[in-house]
Amino acid sequence: MRLLKHIFSVLSWIVFAVIIAYVLIAAPMVAGYKPVVVLSGSMEPAYHVGSVIYYKSTPFEQIQVGDAITFKAGEDALVTHRVTTKNEISRTFVTKGDANPSEDANPVDAANVIGRASELSIPFAGYFISYGKQLPVIIAMAAIIIISIILDSLYPKKKRETERAEQENEEKQ
Hints:
Oligomer: single chain
Order of helices and strands: HEEEEEEEHHH
Enzyme class: hydrolase
Largest sheet: 7 strands, antiparallel
Main location: membrane
Transmembrane segments: 7-31, 135-155
Strand content: 25-35%
Radius of gyration: 25 Å
Strand order of the largest sheet: 1-2-7-3-4-5-6
Number of helices: 4
EC number: 3.4.21.89
Structural class: alpha+beta
């Protein structure tokens, strides 16, 4: 029982560390930055595949040529590319991925821009987030914490210390 308790204690500390990592990744949201996972290499080397980058809602007037912007492309896809041309009249941007040989085919309407990307990126954190969002992983982490709590309540530390002292007394006799 002690070994099982110890195993779940270690596992629960790992789960708590994972939760703290998620909170740290989400922390910039307090300042208005939203995280997004980089899924392609179109912005290499600025943003690596699997990184988490942050964007913040920015008015059209404040976005300049050379800024990386995150915009809607289709129904649910988000793309982060660099502005190569800004058209004040049509309120559109021509964009290009840093690693792409040519500009994107369609200009981006200002209404589809959801923000300007920051320079901050957290390498590999996107894999961590993508893995952690899976239902089996969430269920496993919750189960580890619940089992650890149950084991703590069934086998509290004081009870273990008392049993250990009794066991040592028996061994001495």
